Amino acid sequence: MPVRAAGRSQRVTRAGSTVSVPNAKRSPSAREARSEGGTGGGSSNESVIGENGTRWFRTVNYPLRAKGESPRQGSRRMGHWWYRNIVEPEKLPLLLALLSFVTSFLVTRVITRLIRAGRGPFKNITPGGMHVHHVVPGVILVIIGGFGAIGSGRHSFGGLASAVIFGLGAGLVLDEFALILHLDDVYWSEQGRKSVEIVVLTAALVALVLGGFLPFGVNDLTSAERQSRGLVAMNMATNFFLALIALWKGKARTAFFGTVIPFVALVGAVRLARPGSPYAKRFYSNRPRARAKAGLRAFHHDRRWAIPRRRFENFIGGTPDPAVALEKPPADKP
């Protein structure tokens, strides 16, 4: 830790001696920057080479936006934040994978809706009369991107390209998650809505990991940063535990989104379980009043939120085909 002095800074070496570096100006603190008209920001460690060739470190406090600072200088500070929170924790491949994942899903949904409506130049791929679902090229891209990421360096161009390829393939695969689950072509049916739900869930979880400021991979954090990131990690662990309880109570959507949205999992964990859930079967079997109250609450909840949820899913994934009831032939009377 450097000892600051007017016009001179000192560093204590491993041997215990003190090395003075002349003409080293003290950087302004956040309080001084605010007093000069700037806005308080953060700090970073900066290495300086002294006259005798020794290296010493000093802590530079900087405001987010100083008085009279140009937008170009503000973009440089934004670049420092980008390096500190994205590049240094090695989250750039994850960011590229997330962007390519969301882009792949949205583009695929647009193309499939155009094919369904009979518009545009897009057609189904049917070599030899066999319909090839887009989950097939998605699996191929996931394999290429996964093995490419393992065999490439983290900071190399190959690693970044592999992350993009993996995200594109994952978007194609999860867009047909319902097909994999049911082993049937249910893309435009009610069961196909599960694909939209799993894609939204995956994107939300990756966004949490990307923007959660996790305390892994960033060196030389200040005490305030350590406290903030530690609280984020504790919040994530607590939400995950509450999400498991909500999932046990049969509230899958609340559990999934509770892992990324604070207090959502808490609400799902403390409220009554849904009828038919493992929690209800275990604890409500001998409690008829609780079982009846849980059924009534589930009925009102579904009636209130069913229409907005369907509109949201239809907006993203398209309106499913109406269910066609198969009429059974009348049985012959004896």
Description:
This protein is mainly alpha-helical. It has helices at 30-35, 71-87, 92-117, 135-151, 157-175, 177-182, 193-211, 223-248, 252-258, 264-270, 278-283, 288-317; strands at residues 3-5, 8-12, 18-22, 42-49, 55-62. It is flat. The model is unreliable at 1-40, 60-64, 213-220 and 324-329 (pLDDT under 50).
Strands side by side in the biggest sheet: 1-2-3
Mean pLDDT score:
74
Q: What coarse outline follows from CA principal-axis ratios?
A: flat
Order of helix and strand elements from N to C terminus = EEEHEEHHHHHHHHHHH
Give the helix tally: 12
Helical proportion, percent range: 55-70%
- Describe the biggest sheet? 3 strands, antiparallel
What's the number of extended β-strand segments?
5
Strand content: 5-15%
What's the layout of helices and strands?
Layout lengths: L2 E3 L2 E5 L5 E5 L7 H6 L6 E8 L5 E8 L8 H17 L4 H26 L17 H17 L5 H19 L1 H6 L10 H19 L11 H26 L3 H7 L5 H7 L7 H6 L4 H30 L17
Antiparallel strand pairs: 1-2, 2-3, 4-5
Helix pairs in contact: 3-5, 3-7, 4-5, 8-9, 8-10, 9-10
